[in-house]
Specification:
The complex is a heterodimer of chains A (129) and B (567). Chain A is of the alpha/beta class. Chain A has helices at residues 16-28, 39-49, 65-74, 92-101, 114-128, and strands at 8-12, 32-36, 53-57, 83-87, 105-108. Chain A has a 5-stranded parallel beta sheet, with helices on both faces. In chain A, strand 4 (83-87), helix 4 (92-101) and strand 5 (105-108) form a beta-alpha-beta unit. In chain A, helix 2 (39-49) packs parallel to helix 3. Chain B folds into 4 domains: 10-164, GAF domain (Beta-Lactamase); 201-307, PAS domain (Beta-Lactamase, 2-Layer Sandwich); 312-383; 392-551, Histidine kinase-like ATPase, C-terminal domain (Heat Shock Protein 90). Chain B is built from 16 helices and 22 strands. In chain B, strands 7, 8, 9, 10, 11, 12 and 13 form a 7-stranded antiparallel beta sheet that branches. In chain B, a hairpin with a 2-residue loop joins strand 18 (468-469) and strand 19. In chain B, helix 12 packs across helix 14 (432-448). The N and C termini of chain B lie far apart (118 Å). The chains are: A alpha/beta (129), B alpha+beta (567). The interface between A and B is medium-sized, with 20 and 22 residues. Chain A: The modification 4-aspartylphosphate is found at residue 57.
């Protein structure tokens, strides 16, 4: 994949301001960004927009991140979309739970700078190919 | 002269005599009338009711003699004592045994004697009833019969006293027995009250785990009647399973372990032991099993258990509260962090240096807040007991080296010299993230409170029990981590408070404004919870040495819902 090809990323985050920052940063990197602010919306958009990557927060209204993850992994049309959990929580059990439910990675928002997060996403998407 | 013989059972006889309590007592009419009657019937001058003591004959009743006692050895009654029938001496002068007896050849010049032994109720011969004359005489069969009857009368009087004594004794005994019985009943009632008041379930089993006691509260909890439960195996009353419903294997059950290890085994409320009963009821329980040891052998065990559903719910509520608080507290600073970074990146337009400086200040203040929130959340978790210690075998040196690598840039920025003396390839049972928190805390402190150009030394070693380190003697063989610095040290008067929450020494605040005051409190709390210890020595303006020790067996595990936030 080359950088000109706009890869679609679905960001699920209930904090509007954080969503805006993520969206702006990712747009500037050349990604097409779709956003959802609650769990149900996330599932719907994942199915209809078919993003190449999902950034999924844990604490969300109307189905939390883990529930969304389970649904996505259970459905044939979405189970192959890689999901990176992002959260303010960095404790081991959340990480373990996320990974065991099928998340591909886990980012702790408060511990990384935006640059690091973007690099992680890029590394993940391009590294896979 | 033949002395009066001593019968074989003299000791018992004397005992019996003394028990009578008649010796040396005042004359009594009930005895005197018998001796009087005897003298009248037989027309003799002397009649006595004699009690034979160890060395004397003593007259309880006496007619015709001026004395009340005499020497046993020369007495006639002494002989009569052993007779099986009436003892008669028709003429003392014609009897070899007595012809030279002082009482024959001298006062009172006895020539005739007839006596019958008096027997106590217990069968012992205590004395003699006799008649004496100063003239020799014949004694017919009839006379003997009469004398025997008189003696029987005397015996009756003797024994009636015996009887009343016996009755009094019996009464005393009865009273004592009743008192003892009442005492026992009271004791029993007290014990039963105590056992019944124990709200927890209590089951006592023998060494084969068969139930021998089942308390009232256990009846209520298990819905089994004590009489039905006694004799059965505990497994017939209740099953043990984990949270998911899988049965707990036999060798992990508290009673098994207590009987095998001879130690009291207690499960903590947060461990998942669920008791299941035949009616399907199920609750989480805390269980204590204590072996009962008698003469070095195990004879059984006492099992006490309690429904801890409530405790578990409270625990869960605490964890959920912390989770929620944690999330709410961290979200705004995270937003500020990402936003200020974006502002500083230039992607929102260029700012002048002054404006950028303000953004940097916002960013660093914000970072302090994030650190503080994390530290406070850890403190909350520790105080509420809502955190876990999960241990596994780890390479300590590798973990320490990892932490030192992370802090490398900080060390270089302050131009500090770092020396290490680390025990290579040491394996220890650790909770890695908790261990990292401690190492990080101690080394960061050394870095922060040492001025530029100073030096830090990091050492790890195994120390033996009894070894002295930093003025502290180790109570057991331990792994010890030591950080020394040439920094500002801790003033003497503030040393006692260094481990308290939010405490920062004055000179520390002056040197490094950013500290939370929670680092050492956290490190100490973690070490306290997992069986380790922490101490230090320090001199102001010279430096400090901090020691963290973990027993060689490793950190003690602890289960709960949440973990502490590591770095």
């Amino acid at each position: 994949m080359t950088e000109n090809n706009k890869t679609k990323i679905l960001i699920v985050e209930d904090e509007e301001i954080l969503l805006r920052v993520f969206k702006e940063e990712l747009n500037e990197e050349g990604f097409d960004v779709v956003t959802a602010t609650n769990g149900e919306e996330a599932v719907t958009l994942a199915k209809t927009k078919k993003p190449g990557l999902i950034l999924l927060d844990i604490i969300l209204p109307r189905k939390n991140g883990f529930e969304v993850l389970e649904i996505l992994k259970a459905s044939p049309e979405t189970k192959n979309i890689p999901v990176i959990m992002i959260s303010v929580q960095g404790n081991d059990e959340n990480i373990t739970k996320a990974l065991s439910l099928g998340a591909s990675d886990y980012i702790v928002k408060s511990q990384h700078s935006m640059v690091e997060i973007i690099n992680k996403i890029k590394g993940f998407l391009y590294g896979r190919n | 002269m033949e002395k009066a013989p001593i019968p074989k059972n003299e000791k018992e006889r004397l005992l019996s005599l003394y028990k009578l309590g008649l010796l040396d007592t005042k004359p009594e009419e009930r005895f005197d009338r018998i001796t009087r009657t005897a003298t009248k019937i037989f027309n003799v001058p002397i009649s006595t009711l004699t009690l034979i003591d160890a060395k004397r004959e003593w007259f309880k009743s006496c007619v015709g003699l001026p004395v009340r006692e005499g020497d046993r050895a020369i007495s006639f009654c002494g002989h009569a004592l052993l007779a099986n029938d009436v003892f008669v001496i028709p003429d003392t002068k014609k009897d070899k045994r007595f012809l030279d007896n002082p009482m024959v050849i001298g006062k009172p010049f006895i020539r005739f004697y007839a006596g019958v032994p008096i027997v106590n109720a217990d069968g012992e011969r205590v004395g003699v009833f006799c008649v004496k004359d100063t003239k020799p005489r014949k004694f017919s069969k009839n006379d003997k019969e009469i004398l025997k009857n008189l003696a029987a009368w005397a015996e009756l009087e003797v024994n009636s006293r015996n009887l009343s004594l016996a009755l009094a004794e019996e009464k005393k005994l009865q009273k004592k027995l009743t008192e003892q019985y009442n005492e026992a009943e009271r004791s029993k009632a007290k014990d039963e009250a105590i056992l019944a008041s124990v709200g927890d379930g209590m089951i006592v089993v023998d060494k084969n785990r068969k139930i021998i006691f089942f308390s009232k509260s256990t009846e209520e909890i298990t819905k089994w009647k004590a009489e039905d439960a006694v004799g059965r195996h505990t497994s017939e009353i209740m099953q043990m399973e984990d949270e998911k419903g899988h049965p707990i294997p036999a060798n992990q059950r508290p009673i098994h372990q207590a009987l095998a290890t001879r130690k009291t085994i207690t499960t903590i409320p947060t461990t998942s032991y669920y008791l299941v009963f035949k009616d399907g009821r199920r609750f989480p329980a805390t269980i204590t099993a204590t072996p009962v040891i008698y003469k070095k052998g195990i004879i059984g065990a006492i099992l006490i258990f309690r429904d801890v559903t409530k405790e578990k719910e409270i625990d869960k509520a605490k964890s959920e509260f912390i989770s929620l608080a944690s999330h709410q507290l961290k979200t705004p600073p995270t937003a500020i962090k990402l936003l200020t970074e974006r502002l500083l990146s230039g992607k929102m337009g260029e700012f002048n240096e002054n404006q950028k400086e303000y953004f940097r200040e916002i960013r660093s203040s914000n970072q302090r807040m994030i650190d503080l929130v994390n530290a406070l959340l850890n403190v909350s978790r520790i105080e509420l007991g809502a955190f876990t210690i999960q241990v596994s075998k780890k390479n300590v040196s590798a973990v320490i080296s990892g932490v030192l690598d992370e802090l490398q840039s900080l060390i270089e920025k302050k131009k500090l010299k770092l020396k290490t003396a680390l025990e290579k390839n040491m394996m220890l049972m650790l909770d890695e993230s908790l261990f990292r928190i401690i190492i990080n805390n101690l080394v960061t402190n050394a870095i922060n409170y040492t001025a530029e150009g100073g030096s830090i030394r990091v050492e790890s070693k195994i120390a033996e029990k009894g070894e002295m380190l930093g003025k502290n003697i180790l109570k057991e063989k331990s792994f010890v981590f030591i950080v020394s610095d040439t920094g500002q040290g801790i003033p003497q008067k503030e040393q006692s408070r260094i481990f308290t929450k939010l405490f920062r020494a004055d000179n520390a605040i002056e040197q490094h404004t950013d500290g939370t005051g929670l680092g050492l409190y956290l490190s100490k709390s973690i070490l306290d919870h997992c069986g380790g210890s922490i101490w230090f020595t320090s001199r102001e303006n010279e430096g400090s040495v901090f020691y963290a020790a973990i027993p060689i067996a490793g950190m003690k595990a602890k289960s709960s819902e949440k973990m502490l936030i590591g770095r």
